[in-house]
Specification:
It is a single chain. By secondary structure, this protein is α+β, with helices and mostly antiparallel strands. It has one domain (4-170). The protein contains 5 helices and 2 strands. It has helices at residues 4-16, 21-27, 50-67, 72-89, 148-170; strands spanning 104-116, 119-131. Strands 1-2 form a two-stranded antiparallel ribbon. A hairpin with a 2-residue loop joins strand 1 and strand 2 (119-131). Helix 1 runs parallel beside helix 5 (148-170) and helix 3 (50-67) packs antiparallel against helix 4. The longest helix is centred in the C-terminal third of the chain and has 23 residues, at 148-170. 24% of the residues are buried.
């Protein structure tokens, strides 16, 4: 799975498009919700299903639209952030993104390159694998909290937010 820091930082960046930084830092926590299943020791459980998300989110978003329309954009942003988590996970392991309609999906993308005296070769590879979801409770569920990739995404996020802050202050 992408580490928790990568999920959070990417969620903050998405939220920042819609709301100010302080609110984005709060809304970014939504990007961690799908992994609450790890606390039950069943990682990539129904919390990783777009189908179930749609069943729950559709009436909620509709109610927000009808009764608190000014928060509709924020509701959609929250829905997008949750969805982003699921989409990022399909690139790192089998994810039941279409459960119960389809098996877990794992997308593997790799582009290798080689430079030789005779030229440059680029070899792309995309594999989509499916397998039955396994919702068995585990004795231990392990996963990265912070990786190099997560740290890089967090640093880039921090730089973007700092630049935004300084440019706003400069223009006032």
């Amino acid at each position: 799975m992408p580490d928790l820091l990568a999920h959070y930082a990417s969620s903050v960046l998405v939220a920042r498009v819609r709301v100010d930084t302080r609110i984005a830092l709060l809304i970014g926590l939504v990007g961690l919700i799908p992994d609450v299943d790890a606390l039950l020791r069943i990682h990539r459980w129904i919390t990783h299903s777009l189908v179930l998300l749609a069943l729950i989110a559709t009436p909620v978003v509709a109610l927000v639209y009808w009764y608190k329309r000014r928060y509709f954009g924020i509701a959609l942003t929250i829905l997008l952030i949750y969805t982003l988590h699921l989409l990022l996970d399909i690139f790192t392991g089998p994810t039941p993104i279409l459960y119960p309609l389809a098996d877990s999906i794992w997308v593997k993308i790799q582009v290798n390159g080689a430079s030789t005296a005779t030229g440059i070769t680029v070899t792309p590879s995309i594999t989509v694998a499916t397998m039955k979801p396994d919702f068995t409770r585990r004795e231990t569920v392990e996963g990265p909290l912070v990786t190099e990739t997560g740290a890089i995404i967090a640093v880039v996020t921090a730089v973007i937010l700092l630049l935004e802050y300084f440019f706003k202050a400069e223009n006032q």
